[in-house]
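Example 235.
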Amino acid sequence: MAHNLTLYTSGTTNGWKASITLEELGLAYHAQAIDIFKNVQKESWFLEINPNGKIPALKDGDQRVFESGAIMLYLVDRYDKDNTISYPHGCNEYYEMLSWLMFHVSGLGPMQGQVNHFRCFASVRSDYAIDRCTDEIKRLYSVLESRLSSHDYLVGNKYTIADIANFCVVRVAWILELNLDEFPAVKRWVDRIEAREAVKIGVMVPASAMSTDKLVEMFGAMKAKIDSMQNSDKH
Ligand SMILES: N[C@@H](CCC(=O)N[C@@H](CS)C(=O)NCC(=O)O)C(=O)O
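Predicted structure in complex with glutathione:
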């Protein structure tokens, strides 16, 4: 099928969901790096593509698609005719796949974003906020654990976009100091997905994406800064 794909992205969990999906489908695309630290995603030309002012965003010819979950669904609807990483519309597994995708986009993804914020980016230290979000994240990981302890993948026994979406945040659980040894089935699933060629390439998109070693260093420094602050919670 003819296409003209540009992915606007940076090397973050949400960006990886789109780049891994494109790589898994073997699609040719142009990756345009967006420097979110310079707020390029809030510029008017970008808001024409994603009115929500966040990466990732996709253009396919005249079609724009924003929100990582919508981008993944668009790509498999249009280009995964053999259902290599998806299920056909209407079957039971299709709705199971949607369920795990929504679990991610409305629960795990945003909650991990909140822990990241309070643990690394906040200008004050709030142990209450960190603990509250971390408890919820642990609960969500235990939901994944219970599913993956009896299945290799989240839906049926096939790797799909539901796995890609959830994997992209779980692979950086170390940012939150979550020990995946507490979730052994999740850990095996992360290792299984991390070993895929398309995943190895997708997590290094765009070309400016940082390696895991660099990310560990950067987040380590941010966490040390928060640790050095006094807890600001009022008692
Ligand atoms: N719900 C959005 C979240 C996207 C998102 O939060 N992107 C972050 C990078 S991971 C971003 O663009 N941050 C910069 C900003 O919020 O201005 C999605 O799933 O695509």
